Amino acid sequence: MTAYFFADTAVLTGRTLRHVTRSVDTIITTVITPVAMMLMFVYVFGGAIDTGSVSYVTYMLPGILLITVASGISYTAYRLFTDMQSGIFERFHSMPIARSGVLWAHVVTSLVANLLSLVIVVGVALLMGFRSGAGVPAWLAVAGILFLFTLALTWIAVIPGLSAASVEGAGAFAYPLIFLPFISSAFVPTETMPAPVRWFAEHQPVTSVVDTIRALFTEQPLGDGIWIALAWCVGILVVAYVFAMASYRRKTG
């Protein structure tokens, strides 16, 4: 049964990936916003923000990577909503294939599409002066954290993709996720914020993820931050998965 699940998911993932490759503009659109933000913050505001010995593009890149993911998963919700409205789910479920494979195909496609977007954004950051002395283990750790973060947000995207009443509603949920890094340590040190805002910034998931990735890039001690970041990612993933699967069962039951 497990072998059938993986085989069916692979075939269905190929289908959704073809939709992405035929619409390269979706990946371009996904990276335009974070790249524009990176250009603006580095070349307009960067000189006014003190980040010590770390260049500002290096300081703020982790936050831009998270915004890239948040921007990309809106298309996951859009593709899911479109498939639900077209009746493709019902047609697939009438075939002898794993029912959950249809959903997992969208999740895997989200991971692949976001990987491409992240690579493009890192490439632009390198052109802007981003440099890191981090070794292979540190880069693998960054990749692992971004993978978990993307997976968690993708399962959040599944919920509106299945339950939204309109295509606009399916994608609009991503706006708060894109905004969240602005109230974190992504662009300015939290010490410069007013006390209530600082408290929120220091106790929300984006800050712990950003600080961990930044420490890996700059070869700084990680402390307990990496475990907090992992706990946030895993916790969000589990909760989002439970609610997404419950919504999926209601829609297809």
From TrEMBL:
The chain crosses the membrane at residues 24-45, 57-81, 102-130, 136-158, 170-188, 226-248. The keyword NADP does not apply. Keywords: Antibiotic resistance, Cell membrane, Membrane, Transmembrane, Transmembrane helix, Transport. It is a multi-pass membrane protein. InterPro entries: ABC2_TM, ABC2_TM_bact-type, ABC_2_transport, Nod_factor_ABC_transporter. GO terms for biological process: response to antibiotic. Its main location: membrane. Residues 25-251 form the ABC transmembrane type-2 domain. It comes from the Bacteria. It is found in: Cell membrane; Membrane. GO terms for molecular function: ABC-type transporter activity. GO terms for cellular component: ATP-binding cassette (ABC) transporter complex. Belongs to the ABC-2 integral membrane protein family. This is Transport permease protein.
